[in-house]
Design brief:
The structure is a homodimer. In chain A, the strands form 2 sheets. Chain A has a 6-stranded antiparallel β-sheet with strand order 6-5-4-9-8-7, with helices on both faces. Chain A has 2 domains: about 60 residues, Orthogonal Bundle (Arc Repressor Mutant, subunit A); about 170 residues, 2-Layer Sandwich (Beta-Lactamase). The first copy, chain A, is about 45% helix and about 20% strand. Chain A is an alpha+beta fold. Chain A contains 10 helices and 9 strands. The interface between A and B is large, with 74 and 71 residues. The structure holds a DNA duplex.
Chain lengths: ~270, ~270
DNA sequence: GTATCTTGTTCCATTAAACGGAACCATGTT
DNA sequence: AACATGGTTCCGTTTAATGGAACAAGATAC
């Protein structure tokens, strides 16, 4: 039924397959039985079985014996702890997001580039303090989001050239920039002004202003955005926030760089008793 | 220098080794260079190199080319998203923790059993709404925490017999139950009353009451606790909260079970635009 | 400016592990 | 009792991982 969703995961031997299986289990979003996975994977029965067994014994998957179904394991949660802390700007940016959110009352996003997609790392919703994990880990299109365009604009040409062919250019709304040419023109403009707008390009009625987070050497680390609805605000009002946004982005970048050179600090194992 | 921290990670072949390397990278808590890992791992140079290469190409690690150092990759963050949502009770329990916290003004913990250890999944600190990730993923001893004992008490005897020998029975405070016998006596009492106390067994001056989260079939899903200090409150006052705590635990269990049988709902890929 | 060291990468014959077809077992069905 | 269906184990074959050693590339020392 589900069919196998992608033969794409090329294959660094056994490890690649094991991780592919892990992804497939995670993608189900619920405990999944052997036979379901079997149907959704290209692997022969015995192989899949051994792979699952290995992952389970490693704690990457958990086997519910009552229901005889697999789910992501606790080891993954422990790893997540570590990954979240370092793999991303999230922990550094957190207080800055809080401040921006309090100050503007608007929705704040933090994102990083993951291939040709945007990976949201954190979010503040002025009103309800939204569950972080409900947002973190989400992916979205790069060509029609403020954060996406802000990051693309400051990528080296070589990277950009590699990424553009991977994009869908799906026309989410009438305003979506749906060709490489229009996107590139927009990126040039963003480079000039230093910030990007989403003019209802992703969702009707939703607009945002975004700023890239750049290292001192100009490398793209991530992006920040303020989002609102046309019903409540306007592009002009958002534009007025742009300087504050860029300033915050710069502050995050500065901290991120300081953090990279502990050179001696942070020797302790990150995993407490 | 660092020496290799554990030869314990038995070894399901290649996958086991790869995951072991992943753990080691994560444990550093900062970007780490090849040679540092080399020194901290039992693997020969070429092997470690290939392992790192595989993990990197799989997106589980990210290689910063400027600094030529490895850090946990974004794929791990994406997997974390999935793991957190299903592997744990956290998303389901969240609103209940909020309610308990608001109602009691005390610290609230949510934990699951991870082998013979307690894995904290979420926490509420009445005063400052604590960064979730600063707590999630932490592990602690099972024999001298409220949540630990609450869960152990309702485990099938077979599991308990397997787990007890793995415990350290380290005497954290004078009140710590430091032998299997005293622990078992306590567990019997907990089974009788339905809730567990931590009588300064883990940290002096810190007490708590905990209730197990049990499935309708009686399987241990996790535990909930209210923690306070002897300076501010007493065991008696905590005991008065026990019924409310158990009630909440039951409510979480009910939702968790409903969640297990969507059978059709939640088909969408958790990955939004 | 050459020698040397430290750090990271590639080779390749050896060895070990993954593979997968098929047989098998356990439950639940007609 | 015969038969699915879903899951697990066997075992000869195939493929991939291994790791010692040689090799490149910067960084330091001389």
């Amino acid at each position: 039924m589900a069919g196998d969703q992608s033969g794409i995961h090329s294959g660094d031997g056994t490890v690649g397959k094991a991780l592919d299986v892990l992804d497939r289990v995670a993608a189900f979003g619920r405990p999944v039985r052997f036979s379901e996975l079997m149907a959704a994977s290209p692997y022969p029965k015995a192989t899949l079985f051994r792979l699952l067994q290995t992952l389970t014994s490693q704690g990457m998957l958990a086997l519910d014996p009552e229901r005889s179904s697999y789910a992501p394991g606790l080891r993954l949660v422990r790893l997540a702890h570590a990954a979240w802390r370092q793999a991303s700007l999230a922990p550094i940016a957190r207080p800055f997001l809080d401040a921006l959110s309090a100050e503007t009352g608007e929705t704040v996003h933090l994102a990083q580039l993951d291939g040709a997609h945007v990976l949201y790392l954190d979010k503040r919703n002025a009103r309800v303090p939204v569950d972080m994990f409900s947002q973190a880990g989400k992916v979205g299109p790069a060509h029609c989001t403020g954060v996406g365009k802000a990051m693309l604009a400051f990528l080296p040409e070589a990277d950009l050239a590699r990424l553009i062919p991977q994009m869908s250019f799906h026309r989410h709304t009438p305003a979506t920039l749906a060709t490489p040419a229009t996107l590139r023109a927009e990126l040039a403009e963003i480079r000039r002004t230093g910030h990007a707008f989403d003019r209802e390009e992703h969702e009707p009625g939703i607009i945002c202003v975004a700023a890239p987070i750049l290292s001192s050497r100009g490398r793209v680390l991530g992006a920040l955005s303020l989002t609102t609805a046309t019903a409540r605000s306007s592009l002009g009002a958002l534009a007025a926030r742009a300087p504050r946004l860029s300033e915050t982005a710069a502050a995050i970048a500065a901290e991120a760089e300081a953090w990279q050179f502990p050179d001696d600090a942070g020797r302790r194992a990150a995993i407490g008793g």
